[in-house]
User: Fold this.
Amino acid sequence: MKFNGLNVRIGKQVKLGKNVEIGDDTIIYDNVTIGDNTIISNHCIIGEPANAYYQDRKNYQQKETIIGENSLIRSHTIIYAGNQLGHHFSTGHFVVLRENNTFGNYCNVGTRSEIHGYVTVGNYARLHSNVSLGQRTQVGNFVFLAPYVGTTDDPLPPSMIALPSQIGDFSILAAHVTLAPNVKIGKHCMIGLKSTVNRDISDFSLAVGSSARRIMDIRVMKSPHFQGNYYPWMYQFSRGLPWHEIGFDAWAMANGVEIPPKLEPITIS
Amino acid sequence: MKFNGLNVRIGKQVKLGKNVEIGDDTIIYDNVTIGDNTIISNHCIIGEPANAYYQDRKNYQQKETIIGENSLIRSHTIIYAGNQLGHHFSTGHFVVLRENNTFGNYCNVGTRSEIHGYVTVGNYARLHSNVSLGQRTQVGNFVFLAPYVGTTDDPLPPSMIALPSQIGDFSILAAHVTLAPNVKIGKHCMIGLKSTVNRDISDFSLAVGSSARRIMDIRVMKSPHFQGNYYPWMYQFSRGLPWHEIGFDAWAMANGVEIPPKLEPITIS
Amino acid sequence: MKFNGLNVRIGKQVKLGKNVEIGDDTIIYDNVTIGDNTIISNHCIIGEPANAYYQDRKNYQQKETIIGENSLIRSHTIIYAGNQLGHHFSTGHFVVLRENNTFGNYCNVGTRSEIHGYVTVGNYARLHSNVSLGQRTQVGNFVFLAPYVGTTDDPLPPSMIALPSQIGDFSILAAHVTLAPNVKIGKHCMIGLKSTVNRDISDFSLAVGSSARRIMDIRVMKSPHFQGNYYPWMYQFSRGLPWHEIGFDAWAMANGVEIPPKLEPITIS
Assistant:
């Protein structure tokens, strides 16, 4: 039904793996490498030239763009030259990956998200719709960014100063969270809905507000929606994650990943 | 001038009504039904296959997609399989309707809005640009959602718990309002600019802030921009609405719609 | 490499200047004028008909659309009929310019920004990604609007009342700033991250919060990221700006632009 491959235009030095499928009206520019079994859907542009192309077309060098195997690029997505995307990478629609980002394996970038360039993301990071990551943002492994999460990088706009932010492994940013430049969020954190983060947040924090403050250790947080403690979430949620069959601790031990120390839950008497 | 119908690709079991016009570069997949006099503009995808298609293409069943008569789908819009859209439905550009939403008649979904699936919307709902409705959100009749309004559904991200929100008839959510999961907004409410709603809001509330609190009955609200009481708004505004010629009360009585009880305005002495 | 000009459709009364390049799958409707050396990239729609087209196609008059010389329209951008865009105008991807906006020279409109119509913008204004300007917003010269800045125009939604906002020359709005209708921001202001502006802001204000209040004169603001006073920013930042080689004061004197009066920095003892 899909992927008729009509009206597709493919540039030079393009390497397509086995079973690659390409949708209609898609344009693939020069020096793009696409892994086996990957799908590029309709109306996409892969290897979009960087801004330097417009400044000096004759001397422009198109960097290599790599999309790993078993990936799925949904329609109307634009991936600039110089992106290096791991295997099992997937996007929603209308995604824009500006130049020279690096994503690990099994990452997802949701509909309309924009990654502004030179961003590094670990493995199994899940960015929902409308996430906006400023240049050089560093995102760890197993990070969840909810819709409309954004990071910024210029503390004195307009300036040439760029101070990117960092988000640690296993951390969760709820919808509409905004990070000021130069903020470091630790591991296993949860930042609450619509918070603005202006200062560093230590590991295992539940932080909320504008500017966001740590209100408790996430490991003692109670919710009416779950009996017991939900966080660290890896013990409750494993859909699509590598510990799905054996549990987090067994997987972590086998893979050299630190097991988060447990805290006793606080009893509300 | 428009709708040359060039480079259009149409799948199997597609039923086009009379006078349907289709723009250039548009793709219509299988099992789509489009009512009379409806326009599908350029660069659209109608009947986009659900995620199940990628998991098991051989056994994938493409649900029927229905777009009612006299509708207008603007360019670069993506409508997934399984949507049921009433007549006089319209969209802006770059809209994404994920799978299995149901819209009544005379609804509008603005540019870049995303409806995340299994959402139900009544009649005459107007969603402006960049509205994001989480899965299974329920929206009543004559609801106005301003730009960047968003609803969420996961109270413990990441989890399998989905707690959608509800928005009652005739309610207005101003720009950049965010709803936490599991929130019920009553009828005839107004939620102020950029508020975050964490708890239920009763009928006729003017509610503002983060988290949003009822600050008065909307029927006694004064504004420098209108002499007298503007709300309930149906007595002041009728453009494109069914009571335009006969007035709200006459229309409501003829159609079995409850007439909102009046309150005396507070006199500021 | 780019701009093969495949599958391009061009309407009537379209005037293309010298060296105009047009990308693949782009549609240019009637009565469009494009200046010399301008690039229109792939998947764009230029001269998109206004809503009146759908109401009465026979009597519809397509207004002229003008894009100045040396401009760059990136892919998937939609420019409605009636826009008048100066020279050296550029856009990101997925931009929507609704009908009848006027932009000066050297302006940039970032990816996914939407300009809702009848908006006027001066020269050298830089709108980043996801900026949303309500109808008839007035933006001055050398204004920087960071990602997700938005202006609104209806104080009593839904109503026919439209009260646009104004943003003065040299002012900076940080990311996620929202303006209520009818707000006037003066010259040389800085509005802080995610603020909501409900009232007028006087010249040279640093204003933050919801609703935003002036907390100091921007000229005395200190930052750990810069020695001395960074603002007025024109003395520290000139990339792509006309005073790049001669400095702001010399340029301002030569061009009849007011030189901002200096304030003594406050000494923190």
